[in-house]
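Go through the following before class.
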Amino acid sequence: MNKEPNTESIEEYWELMHLTCEMYGYKNPTEPGTMPPTLQNERSEYKLLDNFHGYTCDSVHCQKLFEQSEDDVKALLYTSLPIYTKLKEHELCIVCIQSATQ
C-alpha cells in the first residue's frame, strides 16, 4: 500500500485492517489474539509490538493517512494498531507487511 491515500484507498485500508484484526481476534497490543508474534519481510524479521505505542507504519501510504487524521484519532486509534517493528528502526502495520509478503 504505497499509493497516495484517496477516499477509496482509505476505505480499503481500514476495511483490511478491521478484517485482519477480526480474523486474528486482535483487540489491542496487550490483547493480540492469535496475531503472529513475528513476521518475515525482505529477509528481515519483524516483531509485533506488545504494548500501546507511539509508532506508525513507515509505508508512504500509511504516513500520508496518519498526517490526514484528526488528533483524537491519532491518540486513540493509532496507539493500538497492530504494528510490527524491526529493531525499533522500521515499523510496518499488519496490512502493509502482509501485502508486501504476498
The helical segments are 7-24, 60-68, 71-76, 94-101. Residues 7-101 form one domain. The chain has one domain: 7-101.
